[in-house]
Amino acid sequence: MKTKIYSLLLTTILIVMVFFGNKAYQAAKSYETVTASLVKEMSAKELATFKLKTLAEIFSLGLYENDKKSHIETFKETALLYKAESQKYTLYFMALLLVVLGSYFIVNVRTFTFFGAISAGITLLFGLTTPIMMVTIHKEVEYLGDVVLSFESKGVIGSIVKLYENGDIVVALVITLFSVLIPSIKVLSLAFVSLFMQSRFAHGLVMFFKMLGKWSMVDVFVVATFLVYLTVDKGEISRAEVEVGLYFFLAYVIVSMLVSFSADKMLHKLKA
Q1: Is the dihedral of CA 218, 188, 101, 208 positive or negative?
Q2: Extents of the domains making up the chain
């Protein structure tokens, strides 16, 4: 009876996690869209127009109002609002994820392995689809000021598509294999093991992923690569910003490792 109650509670938590994850994703995408619009206002052409309107406002002694200034401020305020929203919902998601992990101490190993695997799958989904980084290239131009030359905001899936479009097919395939396909198969396999723990195939799956353990570090390598890219000092012309997708992906890496240990422990108990 207790197992059923705990399972119902964990199911409810997973549903709410999906809700918060979706809200964080939508807010992150809105932040990306508004920032892209703001970046357009920072192009050389738009800044030249802005400077001319500012001069017109000064020489008209207040008779002419530079509406572009308020337009840019509105974009900035909206962008900050969406950014705060994405971070808030990501925090709620992570808090519920911790509750699922904490259930290890109150439910049996099999139940924890199943719900842990599902929560890892949900986290992976948002880690792959939500933007991970935002990079803008700036240049200081005389009279115009800070001009934005380029802007990009990408998640793991977006980066894979970009690599493929640029002709880096081998790199795109490697990242797809180790950051999309293997993690997805691993999550599904862990859920399968918890449901059919007495199956020989289930034991074989756990052994397979234990052998594959060293390769699973490629997940961490991908995240580390993003971080190195973000933290490389490229001077004043490059600005990078971490987005919430990175936290989802990092959380998946940690949760999947913990659930793997749980599945291994579950099968060891069964053998005993």
Answers
A1: negative
A2: 2-271
